[in-house]
Backbone:
């Protein structure tokens, strides 16, 4: 493991007080990888939360530009990791090197984008209402508002993006940007990857002189519960299963002081195929859908898991072509043995359901996942049967044919909340799409037209969120710069003298940011009165 | 009751299916007032939630300027209510006419301020990242984001502001502004007032042709539980007790689909008196504090309930003067019999506690509330004894003397989350105040200097919120324009043609609003590419 430790990283130091030893495995061969990981003890979890808490005042109090420098330093450390690192991630996750290289860029660019947000300053939400001493019947005091980090954040990484949704991934980046120290619970599926990334963050902490405890990492199963229940933790970020996410939400809600949990959990990402598009390019659509469903072995939160259309010869033809296309594709290795087991169970559930018919796909066998296509009756969705609403994580998808437009609308109404909802439509279909959009807005965080939901751009306008159970709180996103909002809260200063105000609210506007002053947005400096 | 009905108002019609009859009382005499109120049945609560749900697509889909017109129409209807109405509010709450007149203005101006926000358009949070078809290694799709109302909102009014925090109060105004229909649960303390205001809203609905069901009102004890558990309800606004608010939070978190609850609950609003200010103007401070503690019979969420300072002759003198001042003030009628009983119990708790000493105030007797001053040992706060952290709603306050600056800091650390934290300081004190501010920011939503927390300005910069138990979610405010954010969620449109995009995101920027376009804020129209 060279310089990499399998010990918990707490307050800037490595710690291994426990005696439960964990092992990481090669995702393809199942062989144990070099190195051992020491599960955190209750005391170490406490220590990690307290280290984050101790770092919080200094970290959130520093200039946002310094935090930006820290994020950029992490990005540079990630980018500097060599081939050894990429090989390790590939071995732990069975993901190909090109994908991991791309994901590493995405992760470091995500950190750099948050650095830009910190310099841009709109995250402060600065608002100033100046005093109106002559106002009748009562004068108005000077009132100024900006946002601060909520406090230490617990982050639970996802298995399927070992970099972009993990140790230094979106939730960590958003929390650190917001001024919130992080305690990261490593995913059991890529602990060695986490150790490398944590070491990279550690070097960035040192180079930019951040407080110890700004980032902490713990290993182990079941230790997350202690973390979420710790009084020092003020918010939680999670990407994973509905069961796991909901359990964290319930724990957080039952605390003496309840805290918000932003859990990204379960979505089947419906795709609605419109008639003109089916008629004009059914063959191409089948090929594209097949690629989207099986990309990365179907291990995306945004994998299209439900394909819908109104009954027609073109729709039937598409289903047939899609079946042929999926059946011709090879099996792929999944992220780990648990993921494969869960995929097998999901596929089995569909096989066994009387309302679901298997269309194509080799019998699920061996230690890889075979692509599968099923068709279900529309009535199943209308009956709110759970089998179709449950995400099957892996390269499987389900087709549903509506009898007519009216039934299609009913089906859409019956759907749970989603991360994405995609329309595949030609120009001639758009008139028919328009009245659906209001309904789609209520169902999902991101609406796509003629694209595929796999592939989530990291930018200002992205929403990777949506109504429950897609996430636990539709008001947040876990990808894109708006993700920082989850970890900020407003504070108002009444009648504070300029010297005591934080930089974003001072008269001279030393940060040069846009502020809402007396109801108008301006970057101007204010005259003292 | 003239044109006023004591029936539930559901989907634009009055409904009285139940047989539980409720009565409103004169707050001073205890006499029953004219008119009866019919408690909502389970079916009526369902009907109200479904009426709100049915109104939601049309209401949130309409132009924000139309919603602004609706809010202004409600304001005009409120302002047009005559002396009969004011008399009714006074009789139900024992609040004086001048206060009610002022509160009515505050309420209608609050609605008008939200109308301005709707026209200003920053609530949309519009963000546009234009397509980058040539980008390497992958092109970027066109991505646009704006915010929509989350869905029907349940609002629970407060007793202490029968207009501004009630039927057409802050939560209702914020939800309606966000595009969310409201089901309002009337407070038992001012049902007649609620009926009048609901009728005013009903007239505004009619005049501005809003959908039936945009506003609904239900009466009754225990009916709130059905409302919060109803699947159509997507968020909850509440102002009241910690016990009541926490119960709603727990119900909402336990739903099949958990929903956010914004509960404003319990705060003791600490005031820290600094040495130079005590020395230079102790007498004036005692008079001002006395006025702030007893204003409106101490029935403000922001009443200063804890006065702190470092031990000194000046501090002792202030306590003495404050005692004299409070003892000289008359008893006042409280909002209702329940509030008086709760005040008596709170005062009794302080009397009985061995760590608390009674300083001044007539024995609590009769059917009015007498101002009371207590002094507690600093150790009580350090021991996290609950007696001092619990809000006593009414004209009582507690003084705590710290041995020195170090103990003062420990006391501040030991405090629960607060709505406000006030510093009373002279120029010479400011140097000593500065290092405290970081700590105060962690404790409260609003920090004041040389003012009193009673009196909450309705403006852009206000925060009426704060860490638990002041509120259930420190990221929200229930006063000021930022309150709208609680009821909005972002939606992203990927690759949507201009014709299908909502107005705030269209290229031509027909609303003329500021938008974040490719990382820069601009009101410009965009060129189609």
Residues:
């Amino acid at each position: 493991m060279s310089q990499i430790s399998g010990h918990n990283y707490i307050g800037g130091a490595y710690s291994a007080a426990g005696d439960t030893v964990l092992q990481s495995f090669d995702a393809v061969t199942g062989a144990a990888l070099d190195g051992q990981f020491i599960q955190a003890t209750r005391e170490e979890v406490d220590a990690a939360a307290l280290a984050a808490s101790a770092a919080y005042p200094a970290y959130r109090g520093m200039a946002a530009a310094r935090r930006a420098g820290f994020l950029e330093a992490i990005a540079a450390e990630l980018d500097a990791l060599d081939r050894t690192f990429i090989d390790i991630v590939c071995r732990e996750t069975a993901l190909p090197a090109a994908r991991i290289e791309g994901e590493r860029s995405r992760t470091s660019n995500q950190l750099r984008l948050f650095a830009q947000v910190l310099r841009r300053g709109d995250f402060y939400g600065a608002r100033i209402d100046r005093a109106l001493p002559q106002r009748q019947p009562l004068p108005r005091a000077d009132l100024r508002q900006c946002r601060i980090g909520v406090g230490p954040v617990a982050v639970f990484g996802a298995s399927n993006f070992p970099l972009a949704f993990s140790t230094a991934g979106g939730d960590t980046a958003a929390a650190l940007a917001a001024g919130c120290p992080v305690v990261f619970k490593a995913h059991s599926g890529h602990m060695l990857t986490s150790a490398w990334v944590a070491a990279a963050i550690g070097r960035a902490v040192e180079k930019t002189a951040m407080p110890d405890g700004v980032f902490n990492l713990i290993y182990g199963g079941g230790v997350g519960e202690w973390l979420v229940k710790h009084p020092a933790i003020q918010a939680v970020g999670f990407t994973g299963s509905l069961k796991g996410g909901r359990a964290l939400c319930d724990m957080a809600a039952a605390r003496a002081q309840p805290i918000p949990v932003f859990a990204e959990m379960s979505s089947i990402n419906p795709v609605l195929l419109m008639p003109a598009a089916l008629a004009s390019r059914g063959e191409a659509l089948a090929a594209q859908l097949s690629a989207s469903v099986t990309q990365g072995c179907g291990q995306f939160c945004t994998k299209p898991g439900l394909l819908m259309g109104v009954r027609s010869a073109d729709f039937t033809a598409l289903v047939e072509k899609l079946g042929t296309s999926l059946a011709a594709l090879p099996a792929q290795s999944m992220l780990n043995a648990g993921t494969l087991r869960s995929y097998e169970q999901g596929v089995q559930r569909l096989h066994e359901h009387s309302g679901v018919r298997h269309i194509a796909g080799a019998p699920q066998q061996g230690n890889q996942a075979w692509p599968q296509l099923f068709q279900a009756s529309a009535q199943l969705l209308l009956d709110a049967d759970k089998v179709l609403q449950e995400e099957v994580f892996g390269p499987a998808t389900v087709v549903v044919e509506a009898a007519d437009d009216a039934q299609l609308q009913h089906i859409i109404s019956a759907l749970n909340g989603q991360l994405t909802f995609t329309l595949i439509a030609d120009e001639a279909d758009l008139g028919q799409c328009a009245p659906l959009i209001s309904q789609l807005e209520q169902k999902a965080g991101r609406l796509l037209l003629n694209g595929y939901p796999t592939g989530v751009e990291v930018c200002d306008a992205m929403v990777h969120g949506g109504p429950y159970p897609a996430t636990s709180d539709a008001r947040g996103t876990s990808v894109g710069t708006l993700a920082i909002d989850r970890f900020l809260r407003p504070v108002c200063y009444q009648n504070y003298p300029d010297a005591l105000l934080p930089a974003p609210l001072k008269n001279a506007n030393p940060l040069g940011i846009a502020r809402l002053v007396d109801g108008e947005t301006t970057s101007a400096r204010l005259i003292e009165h």
